[in-house]
Design brief:
The complex is a heterodimer. Chain A is mainly alpha-helical. Chain A is built from 7 helices and no strands. In chain A, α1 runs parallel beside α3. The radius of gyration of chain A is 16 Å and the shape is globular. By secondary structure, chain B is α+β, with helices and mostly antiparallel strands. Chain B is built from 4 helices and 12 strands, in the order ααβααβββββββββββ. Chain B has a 5-stranded antiparallel beta sheet with strand order 1-5-4-3-2. In chain B, strands 9-8-11-12 form a 4-stranded antiparallel beta sheet. The longest helix of chain B has 19 residues, at 41-59. Chain B is globular. Classes of the chains: A mainly alpha, B alpha+beta.
Chain lengths: 159, 239
């Protein structure tokens, strides 16, 4: 087994649940997200020679996974591939107030929130995955925390 | 940790059903070991015979019912099983000894439930292995020995099955369907068909020799065909 395969496997074993939970918001369910995660890592393995090490390996795999999730959701909904669709909590009835507050955010901001809270990605990783600046990530999350915190009836730190 | 962190933690799925072997297989780097029969080698031979029979049929005589899959679904799962939800009965309530279940002598059993997919037919579903990710199915019928098998990297596209030939007057096909399957219907010669009940994702259908060739068809919630199992009579039933 080559070094890159081992690195991809290490990411998979350490971060599987984070991938599945975050991608469920795009794929629509945890079941569909599992399939996306499996296919994303399979594609990462097939294309491992193409990874040039210009950024973190995990961010590269996240981009592959998001592209697959968006493509499948787009195929099902007829949305163009350039759109992230409507990322949403896979089981919104569990926390309806949070689901409603999230729906008030623009889809791309929602995705940033999901990558942060479900994917546990750093600001730098989210910036890398979404192709935006770290400053935008920070501002988006600060705004989202305030809005979502209000919806949950509590105070959220904005720093 | 903030209330927002807590809220997202509550909503996250904690089901760690990762399977690196499946990833390697999807990447074309390794073939998964799909099924591991553990009770009797006969089951393997019968399943193989049924499969070969089905291939012969596909090449030749007409098969009843829908002829093609209308929607190809990805590999599915059985959510309640991997979430350890108490569907059906406990093995104790069903009077099934744990050590009679497939795979229990081989790997630790992490979860087990018994369901009755057809009158008088009980199926034990068990999750075995260090992380409880291998699924075993054991079939119990009155007056007959138990039989079953286990699967690594469970593939439910959209169902998995085994054929049991040691049934009086025919054979029995039993299996596990993914959550994607809304209903099953069995198509038989001469335009006959009948629904096949799904109980906690498990099905078991008896087939008499006159009911071959058969076509077990899986539908999604929209009524589209998502899977077929074309069966010819197992070799032991042919004369």
């Amino acid at each position: 087994m080559d070094r890159r395969t081992k690195e991809i496997e290490r990411v998979y074993r350490a971060r599987y649940l984070a991938f599945k939970n975050a991608l469920a918001t795009v794929a629509g369910s945890h079941e569909a997200a599992r399939d996306v995660v499996q296919d994303a890592f399979a594609e990462a393995l097939r294309r491992r020679e193409q990874f040039r090490g210009e950024g973190p390996l995990e961010a590269w795999i996240w981009r592959i996974a998001l592209r697959i999730a968006i493509a499948r959701r787009s195929a099902a909904s007829g949305l163009p591939l350039t759109e992230v669709g409507e990322p949403a909590l896979p089981e919104p009835d569990a926390r309806p107030e949070l689901g409603a507050a999230l729906r008030r955010l623009p889809p791309r901001k929602r995705l940033v929130v999901f990558l942060r809270y479900f994917g546990d990605l750093s600001y730098a990783q989210i910036a890398e995955v979404c192709g935006i600046s770290e400053g935008t990530v920070a501002a988006t999350l600060a705004q989202a925390r305030e809005e979502l915190g209000r919806a949950l009836g509590g105070e959220e730190r904005t720093a | 940790m903030s209330s927002l962190d807590h809220a997202f933690d509550e909503l996250a799925s904690g089901i760690d059903d990762q399977d690196w072997g499946e990833v390697l297989a999807r990447a074309g780097l390794r073939r998964p070991l799909r099924r591991l029969p553990v009770v009797v080698a006969l089951l393997v031979a019968v399943a193989l015979a049924a499969t070969l029979g089905a291939r012969r049929h596909r090449a030749g005589a007409a098969v009843p019912g829908p002829q093609r899959v209308e929607r190809h679904v990805p590999n599915g799962t059985v959510r309640w099983l991997f979430a350890h939800e108490p569907r059906g009965e406990s093995l104790a309530a069903a009077h099934i000894p744990l050590l009679s279940t497939a795979g229990s002598h081989w790997q630790p059993v992490r979860f087990a439930r018994a369901v009755e997919p057809a009158p008088g037919v009980r199926v034990a579903l068990t999750l075995i292995g260090k992380k409880g990710r291998n699924v075993c199915l054991t079939l119990y019928r009155p007056g007959l020995s138990a039989g079953g098998g286990c699967a690594f990297g469970l593939e439910l596209r959209p169902f998995s099955w085994m054929t049991f030939s040691d049934v009086p007057d025919g054979s029995m096909v039993a299996g596990l369907a993914s959550d994607t399957v809304a209903r099953l219907r069995l198509f038989l010669p001469h335009g006959r068909s009948r629904p096949v009940p799904l109980v906690a994702n498990v099905f078991a259908v008896h087939l008499s020799p006159a009911e071959y060739p058969s076509n077990l068809v899986a539908y999604d919630r929209s009524g589209r065909v998502i899977g077929r199992l074309v069966g010819d009579a197992p070799a032991v039933l042919k004369h």
